Amino acid sequence: MTGTSDVIFETRGRLGLITLNKPKALNALSLAMIEAMEPQLFAWAADDAISAVIIQGAGDRAFCAGGDIRDLYEKRGTDFGPSYYGAEYTQNVTIFNYPKPYIALMDGVVMGGGVGVSIHGSHRVVTERTLFAMPETGIGLFPDIGASWFLPRCPGEIGMYLGLTGYRMRAADCLYAGIGDVYVASDKIDAIIDALANTPPDKGVISAVLREFSGNPGPNKLAEHQAAINRCFSATSVEAILARLAAEGSVWGNETAEILNSKSPTSLKVSFRQLRAGQSLTRFEDAMTMEYRIADRCFRGNDLFEGIRAVVIDKDGAPNWQPADLAGVSENDVDEYFAPASGEPDFG
User: Fold this and answer.
1) How confident is the model at residue 168, as a pLDDT?
2) Is residue 3's pLDDT more than 70?
3) 136 is a catalytic site residue
4) What is the mean pLDDT of residues 126-132?
5) What letter does residue 9 receive in the DSSP assignment?
6) Which of 136, 291, 303, 306 is catalytic?
């Protein structure tokens, strides 16, 4: 067993096992954890004794609730933001291109950075405790960690809906959206790890083993609202989405509009353009370059830190967005978020 107190590395038979080990902080992903994981992933990729990698979170509440945004807030005005996002997005590329099966046990809360170290793997396991969301527009950020790639590839307009609203999905929703691959009960996780420890390094065999433990996640809410999501979120702007939601004349439409109106107007417009652009990308690495540019600009702006303050620091739930409404966010303002950033990494 190696690693640090916050992330543990061990081998079980032919498995390399990563355990995110900050249960009291919902296994929030720090820069130190990212920097410890990256060389270990490369070492296991080159080790013929390791057939596959599993990643899990310690405790029964969270797989990983996201990046350590309090740390980000406290280091405003330094170069920490670009360093953190550069390392995080580089790791997302590593996982996306990983040469061996990479199995994410997405048990509990999965948000933000936790999505980045799970969803790009070859096998995504969800449980009855899974709570998956991309809530970034509520803290003045945008759906990152490769969301430019995977959200536009969800059925219909579900990706745009998830990215703008931060809707929280349970296991059945995750399967429906193509964000999870198989459902198992959380009390079977240890048995899954034991069963995979001596499994041959074949993705199909691993899938078969996971299916042996699979169950029925129950009904999902996304399917119920799929038609309305497609009608409303296929619009050509955030303003047009809000107009279509009003035209629905439904409880769902009104509640969804209310959710959008609580988000950072800048984040909504930037995220809308980002996710539309992601539809036409053919390389994951290009998605990460775009996201790094957006993140760099967010770190130099107001809304990210105001959102963190309102949600995490002061917890007053009353962010002072600047601009305060969609009308105040021009196309030129949005353009700034997509301009090349100084010293941006080469993601390949």
Assistant:
1) 97
2) no
3) yes
4) 98
5) E
6) 136
Question: 57, 66, 86, 113: which one is catalytic?
Answer: 113
pLDDT at 2 over 90: no
Task: Output the CA torsion sign for 132, 137, 141, 145.
Answer: positive
Check which CATH number belongs to the domain holding 199 and give it: 3.90.226.10
Q: How far apart are CA 37 and CA 254, in angstroms?
A: 43
Q: What are phi and psi of 19, to 5 degrees?
A: -120, 115
Give every CB contact of residue 314 below 8 A, 6+ residues apart in sequence: none
Residues 6+ apart with CB under 8 A from 30: 6, 22, 67, 68, 71
Domain containing 1: what range? Answer: 1-348
> Which of 303, 270, 336, 289 is closest to 73 using CA atoms?
303
Q: What is the pTM of this model?
A: 0.96
pLDDT of residue 44 exceeding 70: yes
Closest CA to 288 of 135, 85, 64: 85
**For residues 314-326, average pLDDT:** 96
> In the annotation, is 144 catalytic?
yes
Which amino acid is present at 141?
L
**Which position among 144, 173, 181, 306 bears the catalytic label?**
144
- 276-295 as b/e, with b when 16 or more CB fall inside 10 Å? eebeebeebbbbbbbbbbbb
Number of residues that this document lists for the chain? 348
- Residue 83: what pLDDT? 92
**Number of domains making up the chain:** 1
Helix (H, G, I), strand (E, B) or coil at 89: helix
Q: Convert 180-191 to b/e letters by CB count within 10 Å (16 or more is b).
A: bbbbbebebbee
Active-site position among 16, 57, 66, 67 = 67
Q: Which of 16, 30, 102 is nearest to 65 (CA)?
A: 30
Q: How far is CA 137 from CA 14, 32, 181, 194, 268, in A?
A: 40, 25, 26, 39, 6
**Inter-residue contact 35 to 29 (CB < 8 Å):** no
Residues facing 125 on adjacent strands: 105, 182
Cis amide linkage into residue 152, ω under 30° from 0:
no
